[in-house]
Amino acid sequence: MSIITNIIILRISCISIDFLLRLIPIIIDWLNASIAIDRTLALVMSTKYDKSKSRRAVKWTIISILLFSTSSLLHDPINRQLIEDREETRTWCLIQYSSALQIYNSTINIFHFFVPFIINIVTAFIIIFVAARSRATAQRQQTYKQHLKEQFHRHNHLILSSIILVILATPRLIISFISGCMKSVRNSAFYLVGYFISFIPPCITFIVFVLPSKLYKNEFYAATRRFRTFIGRQ
């Protein structure tokens, strides 16, 4: 927009900013999916679940997610370039793919979008059914169907939060398939709203995951009390 004219700053921002804005939500989605898997394993394995092994696995999982997500998107910054438009007196940050790379880019977008969502939904249903089966075995005064209904009511936030997050992230997927440049402020509100809606999920993790869950909310309150006690001692 001719506000910044330093070519080095423009080149760095062209390569990095859009890449990071694309990468970070993907990393968050995969971290959420990993938490869902760990939560499910803890329930399914019950007494066999080893917390110390889980903590060690977390470190490798985070590293793997960072490496996998970054490497799958490296084609993005590599193919970015600055184009000087003298007629409109502006500098464009353009990205151009070959047909094969375009197919790969679309495929990887769909993969990063749907797979974490599917993991979240599937693990949520596994938790509900396994918990209902365990309760039905331990508490025979109620039928399995009654326990199942109770567990759906208790854990419905897992399903609802996954659906809400994927709905909010949908504009990000749609925009990734739209090619072209916004040359003026005409209809800019539509694109900007869709663009910023995509970043709502990382900003409302607390609202979506913690507040609807009695367990997580109690843990949050307990952690807050411990923090206040620690600060008071200082």
TrEMBL record:
Q: Where in the cell is it found?
A: Membrane
Q: Does the keyword Membrane apply?
A: yes
Q: What keywords is this UniProt entry annotated with?
A: Membrane, Transmembrane, Transmembrane helix
Residue intervals passing through the bilayer: 110-132, 158-178, 190-211
Give the source lineage, highest ranks first: Eukaryota, Metazoa, Spiralia, Gnathifera, Rotifera
All copies of domain G-protein coupled receptors family 1 profile, residue ranges? 1-209
Q: What is this protein called?
A: G-protein coupled receptors family 1 profile domain-containing protein
Look up the record and report any one GO term of the cellular component aspect: membrane
Q: Does the keyword Phosphoprotein apply?
A: no
InterPro entries named in the record:
GPCR_Rhodpsn (IPR000276), GPCR_Rhodpsn_7TM (IPR017452)
Under Gene Ontology molecular function, one entry of this record is:
G protein-coupled receptor activity
- Which source organism does the UniProt entry give? Adineta ricciae (Rotifer)
